[in-house]
Prior knowledge:
With 619 residues, the protein is α+β, with helices and mostly antiparallel strands. The chain has four domains: 3-213, 2-Layer Sandwich (Heat Shock Protein 90); 226-360, Ribosomal Protein S5, domain 2; 364-476, Rossmann fold, CATH 3.40.50; 487-618, Up-down Bundle (Four Helix Bundle (Hemerythrin (Met), subunit A)), CATH 1.20.120. 40% of the residues lie in helices and 21% in strands. The strands form five sheets. A nine-stranded mixed beta sheet has the order 1-8-7-6-9-4-3-10-11. It has a five-stranded mixed beta sheet with strand order 12-13-16-14-15, sandwiched between helices.
Amino acid sequence: MSVKKEFQTETKQLLNLMINSIYTHKEIFLRELISNASDALDKVRFESLKNPEVLGEDKEFSILLSFDKDNKTLIVEDNGIGMSYDEVIENIGTIARSGTKAFIENLKKTGSKTVDGDLIGQFGVGFYSVFMIASEVILETKKLDSEKGIRWISSGDGTYEIEETDISKRGTKIIIKLRDDAIEELDILEPNTIETLVKKYSNYIRYPIKMTIENELKTLNSLESLWNKNSKDIKQEEYNEFYKENFHDWNEPFETIHFKAEGASVEFTALLFIPSKVPFDYYSKEYRKGLKLYSKNVFIMDKHEDILPDYLSFVKGLVDSPDFSLNISREILQHSKQIEIIRKNIEKKILKALKDKIENDRENYVKFWKEFGKGIKGGLYENIFEKEKMQDLLLFDSSKSDEKMTTLFDYVERISDENQKDIYYAVGETKEEIERMPQLENILDKGYEVLYLKDAVDEFLLKMMMEYKEKKFKSVSSEEIEETEKEKLKEKEEENKDILEKIKEELKGKVVDVRFTNRLKNSPVCIVSQKDGVSVNMEKILKEMDTFNLKAEKILEINPEHVLFKTIDELYKDKKEDKIVSEFANLLYNEALILEGIKLDNPSDFVKNISEIIATLKK
């Protein structure tokens, strides 16, 4: 008996967008349905490797296309794994997945009714693209080893009907009742149109895509495994189309890596793609890394995770090896020496490709870095003892870099002063904020370059790395920056011992020391942190994360040549009033916090403090 159900709210929104928005490239609906059919065939083939008997007499895998001009229907049919009643509801009726929500949010951001149809592939909502051209969709499916089949019907109006039915063979059949405008726009009920679309979007699907043309059943796709062709004979456009078809991305890959390896213990071919854009779920728990595994063109496993290190989890692709057993399990592969050898080879190839991009195509590498840099830094943080592999992939803004940013290697190469033993860095949320830091004044005046760390993890990462090419990382906000003219400063501090002690006493609990500095040129004051301790920036981040209650041991550094300190000194010596020191001490401290980008605990007290100082100056 047929049951009528409502779609999930987000799915309703999605269907409404599919039907009412003006999509470009509506033709990609066929690519999405063929891709889904190919996935279903992969799954049933995998089941047959474990138990060949499950296929019965239906052992030739294929995707069948047909059309009926009179009834204005197009049919996409496969003999894949099929779906159960619950799976149809989960995968088509509900799709309570982040992909749907992310897709809708992305479309809302554009604020346009014209939407690039290729966006559909990015968010994994491909089945729903059929509603761009359909007035009604009928899906009939029978799961492997099931007695009953399922029929699902919807016109995309927010509801669907579902029922059990008698279906003779496994697989899925999608009957699309086409809208008149879609028939006219796409000319989709013509054999030449369908064949052209298959060759354009699905030529390298490894199962035959068949259609009867002039009473002859014809295979429309090439069926040739792209990865087994000589790379010299493959155009980049072919790689791009293969990538889009098989890995559901609407963008062209950032880099393609295709190579064969032959050794005493393992032989394999790898076809790898580095995406140009972050997948919508890349930084979520739902994301699954891994490469597809084949043995002599036969698919045996999807997304084998151990073949890629975590920091390269964005890489997509496949590995084909005659040394893989067709019925090998994930558990066996996990401890396989073959996999370890393949993993090392793949890692080397990917790292080489990325480093080549840094050297020869920095502009595009910067775009890639802005997409995937966070993941690479996270991988380096977690594998710090292998930093030599990854450290040259890092990019930073700096006081001497342009839009191409800088690597650590670039920084070291630019060092002209043989006395510079350190790599300096400053931390802030934006480049502009960092450039306003008073601690930069003296460093830049010396001609030293400073890395600008704008990501929360950056300072933690550099502290873990400790050094690069024998040069230690030093924060401009660290007390150990101060190396020159120490004796002169000590003399000045001794002359002003009384007022410095009073300022320190007033700021007790807020700073561990108050002293003079020569690192400042135009600014009156700054905050620095003690050597090897938690930095001011780290304290701020940890507080925001509510993770650890660690405090930076702050030191207030004062520019003794600045007019503000000279004013304080004159007023104190003239009136000998501790109140003057108290008022100015808090002014200096709060000003230093503001310059450091730290929110004041009590802004109203700061405003009151300024008012009192103005009143003092008027007396």
